[in-house]
Write a structure and sequence with these properties.
Blueprint lengths: L8 E5 L3 H12 L3 E5 L3 H20 L5 H9 L1 E3 L11 E4 L5 H14 L5 E4 L6 H5 L8 E5 L9 E6 L5 H13 L3 E6 L6 H17 L5 H10 L7 H8 L1 H14 L10 H9 L11 E2 L6 E2 L2
Parallel strand pairs: 1-2, 1-4, 2-3, 4-5, 5-6, 7-8
Antiparallel strand pairs: 6-7, 9-10
The protein binds 1,4-dihydronicotinamide adenine dinucleotide.
1,4-dihydronicotinamide adenine dinucleotide binds next to helix 1, helix 4 and helix 10.
Amino acid sequence: MAALDNNSIVAVIGSGAMGAGIAQVAAAAGYRVKLYDTHAEAVSKAIQDIGKMYVKLAEKGRMTAQEAQEASARLQAASSLQDVSDASLVVEAIVENLDVKRGLFADLEALVGDDCILATNTSSISVTAIAAKLRRPERLVGMHFFNPVPLMALVEVISGLATSDEVAATVYDTSIAWGKQPVHAKSTPGFIVNRVARPFYAEGWRLLSEQAGDAATIDAVLREAGGFRMGPFELMDLIGHDVNFSVTQSVFGAYFNDPRFTPSVLQQEMVNAGFLGRKSGRGFYRYGEGASVPAA
Ligand code: NAI
């Protein structure tokens, strides 16, 4: 099996943190990329931010100025879903909700060609379930990137029960062509990384609710003494509390409410408050100009 030809068009649906990162990586690897989002401003912001990232990479000597310019020129805004009908691969990075994702893929299936591969960047939802309502569920696969996409090498290529081996192999090889290190995984709740990560966050929430220490102290201890690159709270701020809360709910439900995966009411309150982390400017820390500082 080979990677998708790099004359192919890759459509990225959802232009938030993940969609923008995926688009950046695909365009840098030589693919033409169309970005779509229900919020048109998200698309223009993503294209602008990616352009700036390429310029920075060129300044650091990681790509030439010409490569940066060419990569930027391969990015295009899609003003409607119809605009992505000529894509060979669609990567979905929208809200972490089964019904919304199913709705999007049903719309896409009616628009794209028969050979188009449909990929979901879901963090935790069953790939089997997302595909189940499609006319051709064998063409849907998980293509799970990690945040921040340009820096994190791993991609979990997730097969649902109906996913064809050929589709999984093409996405695996395409991930390599994008400079990533893919791994095949099956559609289990949270897949590999997000499953193992659940107790890391859950114990952080328990420590906080038992007032063992504040978020900044717990983060510092795990980072400096525990050997983790980030503590649980700064990592959840990076991921987005809305996204992480949805992932915990999804894994909890998928394991028939196994108490080990019980979501935290503290996290629910963070979401209720709109303290989503970096993307909203406030989570456990405040974000803006300069270094992050504890919010409380
Ligand atoms: P985000 O909140 O930064 O961006 C989501 C974007 O999708 C928003 O711009 C929103 O306007 C758009 N959107 C929502 N519904 C839409 C629809 N029906 N059609 C088109 N656009 C729509 O979210 P983020 O963090 O980029 O996550 C996206 C997906 O990637 C989720 O499934 C999440 O679980 C997954 N993911 C997130 C990671 C993270 O660290 N944030 C890591 C790996 C996967």
